């Protein structure tokens, strides 16, 4: 992942009014990572099958952070609560 990703996300939130950013990530070049990358690439522009990876701290606290009672899908749950609360994520 690019070392400047955090500053780019902060800048995008501040300049364009976003509350969170869905960051597309790429894994290392091993075989299984390539399989995972293919899966991620299939969902690149699908706003229903993604979750934000960068979120403003005040909003993270406001929507209740991660639900520790869940055994899987905490990131999708957080993303859905963000949307349901009316916040504005970016899907680059």
Explained architecture:
The chain is mainly α and 92 residues long. It has one domain. The chain contains four helices and three strands; from the N terminus they run αβαβααβ. The chain has a three-stranded mixed β-sheet with strand order 2-1-3. The longest helix is centred in the first third of the chain and has 12 residues. It is globular, with a radius of gyration of 14 Å. The protein starts with a helix and ends with a strand. The mean pLDDT is 80.
Quick recap of the structure?
The chain has 92 residues and is mostly helical.
Give keywords.
92 residues, mainly alpha, three-stranded mixed sheet, 4 helices, 3 strands, 7% strand
Provide the number of structural domains. 1
Most strands sheet: 3 strands, mixed
Strand content: 5-15%
Order of helices and strands: HEHEHHE
Cα(first) to Cα(last) distance is 15 Å
Radius of gyration: 14 Å
**Number of beta-strand segments:** 3
Overall mean pLDDT: 80
Shape: globular
Structural class: mainly alpha
Q: Strands of the largest sheet, in order across it?
A: 2-1-3
Q: Which regions are unreliable across 5 or more consecutive residues at pLDDT < 50?
A: none
Q: State the helical fraction.
A: 40-55%
Question: Total helix count?
Answer: 4
Would you spell out the secondary-structure blueprint of this structure?
Blueprint: H1 5-16, E1 20-21, H2 31-42, E2 54-55, H3 57-62, H4 74-84, E3 89-90
Parallel strand pairs: 1-3
Antiparallel strand pairs: 1-2
